[in-house]
């Protein structure tokens, strides 16, 4: 694995050099993990002039789910408790004669940035911007394999829930049970706070579970994901409780299903982000559901659950092969509830069979 | 409740005026909640020239655990999805003729700060520093009552765990079960990631649960807390598994217990933070456990699980009445395990009976 991290760092270094900084300080945890193999709490990565250095507040945790620091990296642990690894890194850099440093201005606070300047007044601080986030967009097969395992775990957890009795149980309990099942099946933990929404809550994106109980006739929408070796996937499904869905429920379900399928089918290398969004969105729009539509139809996933790209009307850019994204349109009718259907897929060229569906739980409307 | 939030904002405004800023922008979520009653995701609070304004990315969530925005506040929801409420607030302020604004430089990123400057070039940005964090240190009885309920919930969850069979179960499962029980008893959720540590892991502060199973003869240390209406408490206990603890286990337990008691007894209005720390620390030190001692003996709790004050050798300042703190010394012997004992208490004057213990689970060494 060590070569993977080294080659990521090499690519980043090339970008830095091209923009005039010889060295860079990475502080955003997912970026540190991407480049160093692990991101112990508070750690920063210094791409130095001669060598790269992981600066930690204490000894790294040794659990597979947390990752292990690349053995090619020197690990430096602060001796003084409560010290700031970013400041220590700047100090080390000055000690070896560095004079310019690119930092992540979208992650560093103003106060930390000022502290860096005061510790190393001779150091010219530049902005690294989202350079690491951009490197992270296209995944290698190792990363996709972690996402695939995470998706299998989420499918299993969801499948088991569907076999249990649901009526009378609260959203909060169902969410906790799903999270326990994720861990049972080998997840590091949930990829994000599991959402379970019943009745009038169903179909709301990111709904936080309440004490409302599942009732006959409800829509039940569930969104969960597993984190596996740091990689986070997402699946969302909507079900009907009871034997016979109402006509409006079947209609709404079919509509969201059609939108979600259109979004999935639009995924291809070279497709514009906004065209994928439009493919799904226009189906909901033309059925009169433009009010209250969410801002995104989908987004990238990886070491964070919401990464670039965004699939939205205003997004600029095009998909590449090997980019994992969600496709998750939904409609929520205030007071009645709604439907969300959410898959994680990997963009693949037509020649390789088109988009690879990671979350394979059925999207038929199940009456439970 | 509305007067509570209004009076907190008045106190903050007085501090701002004293340091030359007529207006302030609060972005750190716990600070927003403290002053506004709720902190919807991404929301910021503008203490304006004429009125105070909560600027949100969308309509506030309506759950008691999330808090409700103070009704005396005007709530402004952004129309454009993906917009930054801080930028919108600065824009509004300029519109009404504001010329200076104190911001939380320890929370705002460099990139957001720059965006504020570019949107409102005429606005002089100052640093609010930790002014809100300082206001938050001393709690009112309403806040203490939330902590007390949270502590009861944590005591209940822990008590139930002790009645179940432990041998053979993994740290991760025990942690998940504790978190489920917290929610069963009415917590918003866990106050922090529940720590369960067995055998050689026991006694490590912040140990993250692994797949190690509880064995006969193990020390088992558990640290958990409930969040109740946003307020977070903490309890930690260490147990022995099996009928007869080894001599080294009894000795180590008695030592940490003595240190923890000394720390608790040192809590009083006017006591220096470092003296409380020293009271506990010197007992461990003089028994030869100075190596590897944690940097803190305890810390404040409230809307965040780690707040001011810090009870540590280098901390400056003195305790006030109505400050809730943890006292949590511990010793970890590499390869063997160790002991941590952790309570949440409220500092009270001698005349009121001295420190109020919120977490009342027994600290006798239980053999389970």
CATH class of the largest domain in chain A: Alpha Beta
Largest interface: A-B, 27 and 27 residues
The total tally of domains of chain A equals: 2
- How many strands appear in the DSSP assignment of chain A? 19
Strand content of chain A: 15-25%
The assembly state of the depicted protein chains is: homodimer
- Large-scale geometry of chain A: elongated
Care to give the gist of this entry?
2 copies of one chain form a homodimer. The first copy, chain A, is elongated. In chain A, helix 4 links the parallel strand 5 and strand 6.
SSE map:
The structure is a homodimer of 368-residue chains.
Chain A: H1 2-18, E1 24-26, H2 29-36, E2 44-47, E3 52-56, E4 74-77, H3 85-95, E5 100-103, H4 110-119, E6 124-127, H5 131-136, H6 141-163, H7 171-184, E7 189-190, E8 195-198, E9 219-224, E10 226-228, E11 231-232, E12 235-240, H8 247-265, H9 273-286, E13 298-300, E14 307-311, E15 324-327, E16 330-333, E17 337-340, E18 343-346, E19 356-357
Parallel strand pairs in A: 1-5, 3-4, 5-6
Antiparallel strand pairs in A: 1-2, 2-3, 7-10, 8-9, 9-12, 10-11, 13-14, 15-18, 16-17, 18-19
Observed structural traits:
three-stranded antiparallel β-sheet, 2 domains, Creatine Amidinohydrolase, homodimer, 368 residues, 19 strands, alpha+beta, Creatine Amidinohydrolase, Chain A, domain 1
Q: What does this protein structure show overall?
A:
Chains A, B: Keywords: Aminopeptidase, Hydrolase, Protease. 2 copies of one chain form a homodimer. By secondary structure, chain A is α+β, with helices and mostly antiparallel strands. In chain A, helix 3 packs parallel to helix 4 and helix 8 packs antiparallel against helix 9. Chain A has 9 helices and 19 strands. In chain A, a hairpin with a 6-residue loop joins strand 13 and strand 14. Chain A folds into 2 domains: about 140 residues, Creatine Amidinohydrolase, Chain A, domain 1; about 220 residues, Alpha-Beta Complex (Creatine Amidinohydrolase), CATH 3.90.230. Chains A and B meet through helix 4 and helix 7 of A and helix 4 and helix 7 of B.
């Amino acid at each position: 694995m060590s070569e993977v991290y080294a080659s990521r760092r090499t690519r980043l270094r090339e970008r830095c050099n091209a923009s005039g900084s010889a060295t860079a300080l990475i502080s955003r945890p997912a970026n540190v993990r991407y480049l160093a193999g692990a991101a112990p709490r508070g750690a920063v990565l210094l791409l130095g002039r001669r060598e790269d250095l992981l600066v930690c507040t204490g000894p790294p945790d040794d659990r597979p789910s947390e990752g292990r620091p690349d053995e090619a990296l020197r690990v430096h642990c602060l001796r003084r408790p409560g010290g700031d690894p970013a400041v220590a890194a700047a100090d080390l850099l000055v000690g070896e004669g560095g004079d310019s440093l690119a930092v992540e201005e979208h992650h560093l606070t103003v106060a930390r940035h000022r502290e860096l300047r005061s510790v190393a007044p001779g150091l010219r601080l530049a902005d690294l911007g989202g350079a690491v986030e951009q490197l992270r967009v296209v995944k290698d097969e190792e990363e996709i394999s972690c996402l695939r395992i995470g998706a299998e775990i989420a499918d299993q957890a969801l499948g088991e829930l569907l076999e249990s009795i649901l009526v009378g149980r609260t959203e909060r309990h169902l969410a906790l049970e799903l999270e326990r099942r994720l861990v049972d099946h080998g997840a590091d933990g949930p990829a994000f706070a599991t959402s379970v929404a019943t009745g009038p809550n169903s179909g709301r994106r990111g709904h936080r579970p309440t004490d409302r109980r599942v009732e006959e006739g409800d829509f039940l929408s569930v969104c969960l994901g597993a984190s596996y070796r740091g990689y986070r996937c997402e699946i969302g499904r909507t079900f009907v409780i009871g034997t016979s869905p109402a006509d409006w429920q079947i209609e709404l379900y079919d509509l969201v299903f059609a939108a979600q399928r259109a979004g999935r089918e639009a995924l291809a290398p070279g497709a514009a982000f906004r065209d994928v969004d439009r493919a799904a969105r226009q189906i909901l729009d033309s059925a009169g559901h433009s009010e209250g539509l969410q801002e995104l139809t989908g987004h990238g996933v990886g070491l964070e659950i919401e990464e670039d790209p965004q699939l939205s009307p205003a997004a600029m850019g095009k998909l590449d092969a090997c980019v994992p994204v969600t496709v998750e349109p939904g409609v929520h009718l205030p007071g009645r509830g709604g439907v969300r259907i959410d898959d994680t897929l990997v963009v693949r060229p037509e020649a390789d069979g088109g988009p690879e569906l990671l979350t394979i739980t059925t999207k038929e409307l199940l009456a439970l």
